[in-house]
Amino acid sequence: MTEAISDSFALVGRQMRHIRRMPEQLIGITVMPVAFVIVFGYLFGSAMQVPGDGGYKEYIMAGIFAQVMLANITTTAVGVVGDLNNGLVDRFRALPISRSSVLVGRTVADGMLVAWTCAVMALVGYLIGWRAHNGVLQTLAGFGLLLLMGFAMSWLGALLGLVLRNAETVSAVSGVIMMPLAFLSNAFVPLDGLPGWMRAVAEWNPVSAVVSASRDLFGNERGPASGAFPSEHPVPAALGVLVLLIVVVVPLAGRAYQKAAAQR
């Protein structure tokens, strides 16, 4: 166990050094979310009617944070496919390191990147008027929940990359997964105006639970609860679904890695 942890830290360091040598990659994953904050905050902010006094700038921040976490599916999946195709996995197999550390190093490093992106987005959000009203501890809990979502999405991306093993296919499939999760939710608009069946689907969308829980922890208005369990109890609902996803996906990704490495 100690060796696996040590190997994982070493591979996280390797991923971070790789980012330091290619700063354009860091800029690429940071600029787009910041652009979303500015565009949604200013371009759509004056036209959108949302619950509470904070306005659309406060309402939208949790949704954009969640969208960034969802994007970790593609980031990790494409990275895993690259490792498979450029021979890195073969080199790792020749080294006396824990096999589990390869995926742990990749997912933790990608989690650190989205943490950086969150910090930049929070600063830009603050500058345009977003505020967290519930104190430091609950605000940190909100970010912790979002980062847990990013970590779960990273493992889902690792599984996707190991199964599909093709960058173009991974990008297409991850887009198909992310689109309904992001837009059939309360991330960008309240659910009041949706037809009944669509509203029910959106309320049980795990992204809606994470976004509502984050808004509660930040002290941002999220509108009246509808009676559905994720709407009434978003924090336990979000934690439950994320932990369940990690428990299911991590062993599946480990098994897929063993299979992919053995076939090379």
Outline the structure in words.
The chain is mostly helical. 80% of the residues lie in helices and 0% in strands. The chain is built from eleven helices and no strands. It has helices at 2-21, 23-44, 55-85, 88-93, 100-128, 135-164, 167-183, 196-204, 206-218, 229-232, 234-262. Helix 3 (55-85) crosses helix 9 (206-218). The longest helix is centred in the first third of the chain and has 31 residues, at 55-85. 40% of the residues are buried.
Which short descriptors sum up this protein?
0% strand, 80% helix, 264 residues, 11 helices, mainly alpha, globular
Oligomer: single chain
Biggest β-sheet, characterized? none
Element string (H = helix, E = strand): HHHHHHHHHHH
**Alpha-carbon Rg, integer:** 19 Å
The pLDDT mean sits at 86
Q: Helicity level, as a percent range?
A: over 70%
Strand content bin: under 5%
Per DSSP, the total helix count is 11
Shape: globular
Structural class: mainly alpha
Q: Pick out the low-confidence regions.
A: none
Number of separate strands: 0
Compute the separation of the termini in Å: 27 Å
SSE blueprint and pairings:
Layout: H1 2-21, H2 23-44, H3 55-85, H4 88-93, H5 100-128, H6 135-164, H7 167-183, H8 196-204, H9 206-218, H10 229-232, H11 234-262
Quick structural overview:
This protein has helices spanning 2-21, 23-44, 55-85, 88-93, 100-128, 135-164, 167-183, 196-204, 206-218, 229-232, 234-262. By secondary structure, the chain is mostly helical.
